[in-house]
Structure formats: C-alpha cells, structure tokens
Amino acid sequence: MKMVWLRFLVLSLFMVLLSARGIPDPPPGARLKFTVGVEGIVYCKSCKLPGYIANIGMSPIPGATAILRCRTNITNAISVPIKTNSEGYFLFQTSQLTSFTSSNCRVYVTNSPLSKCNVPVYPGPRGSNMLKFERAFTVNNGIEYLYSSGAFVFQPKKGLRCP
C-alpha cells in the first residue's frame, strides 16, 4: 500500500511541475506520450570550409556520425547512430530513452569524415559529452524533453593544411 501512495505522490508532483513549466495538462483519459530529443553540432576548427562561421573560427562538418549511448547495466542499454546534416547539426528523437535518465546517456563523435580535419579537440579523444537539459515542449499527443550534448570540435593534424 505504501508503494501505491508513493507512486501517486510522485505522479502528482510530476504533473504539478509540468504545469508550472507552462506545459498544459493532457485531456482527461488521454495517455501521455514522452519522447526525448538530443541535439548537438560538429565543427572543424581553423578551416574555412563551406558554412564557415567567422566569429567562432569554425566550419560545420556534414556527414559526421554521432552516437547516442545510454546504459544502466549490461542488459539495459541502447546505442543510436545519426549523421550530421549540411550544417553539422544532429538531432536524435526517440521514445526508446524514457527508461533512462540523462546521467545514463552520453553522445560520442569519435571521428570526423574529413581526413584533413580529424583530430578531436573538444571534448577530447574520448569524444563524449554529458547531456544538458534545455527545455520541455508539447508535440502531438505528448511531451518532448530536449537535451543538448553541446559542440564537438575537430582540427587538422599539426603541420597539415586545411582542406
């Protein structure tokens, strides 16, 4: 009986927090769907490639593979790859992550498709960023929680010129 009350209390608190964030309550009897979005961007530092952004001195890397990995234990794990678009941006959107917390998940971009800009600078050789909560918003019949993995930065090897 204690578990029932605890669940009720947690769900009630959750609904209060959602309404406090400006997210409307679902219609009575509706089943609320939760999805998770994770976004990020991949750059090449110091190279003036298409899409070069002068104020940060970097160019987007299209076609880089970002991998979202979530794990709570050996049997409860997921790994989802996605390619960056022409602006170096990626966005994972899935309902498969609702059993994980953001601390269970990391995004990896371990290499660049550009052979002359493939030395990882940030977050470094391990290529992993923690997720940062950005916002929650309504989509269709549910709520999406959007997280950011931030930027991944590569540069040319020492002594090599930019492509």
Describe the structure.
It is built from one helix and ten strands; from the N terminus they run αββββββββββ. It is mainly β and about 160 residues long. The strands form two sheets. Strands 1, 2, 5, 7, 9 and 10 form a six-stranded mixed β-sheet that branches. Strands 4-3-6-8 form a four-stranded antiparallel β-sheet, with no helix packed on it. It has one domain (about 35-155): Immunoglobulins (Immunoglobulin-like, Sandwich), CATH 2.60.40.10. Keywords: Signal. It comes from Rhynchospora pubera. This is Pollen Ole e 1 allergen and extensin family protein. One of its GO terms (cellular component) is cell periphery.
Quick rundown:
Pfam families: Pollen_Ole_e_1. The chain is mostly beta strands and 163 residues long.
Describe the SSE topology:
Blueprint: H1 2-20, E1 33-45, E2 58-60, E3 65-71, E4 77-83, E5 89-94, E6 105-108, E7 119-122, E8 128-130, E9 132-139, E10 142-155
Parallel strand pairs: 1-10
Antiparallel strand pairs: 1-2, 1-5, 3-4, 3-6, 6-8, 7-10, 9-10
Our Rg estimate from Cα atoms comes to 19 Å
Q: Tally of extended strands?
A: 10
What fraction strand? 35-45%
| DSSP helical segment count | 1
The residue-averaged pLDDT reads 79
Q: CATH fold name, please?
A: Immunoglobulin-like
Q: Span from first to last CA?
A: 66 Å
Biggest beta sheet attributes? 6 strands, mixed
Secondary-structure element sequence?
HEEEEEEEEEE
Write the CATH homologous superfamily.
Answer: Immunoglobulins
Q: What count of structural domains?
A: 1
Provide the low-confidence segments as ranges.
1-20
**What percent of the residues sit in helical stretches (DSSP H or I)?**
10-25%
- What global shape is seen? elongated
| CATH class membership | Mainly Beta
Structural class based on helices, strands and sheet pairing: mainly beta
CATH architecture: Sandwich
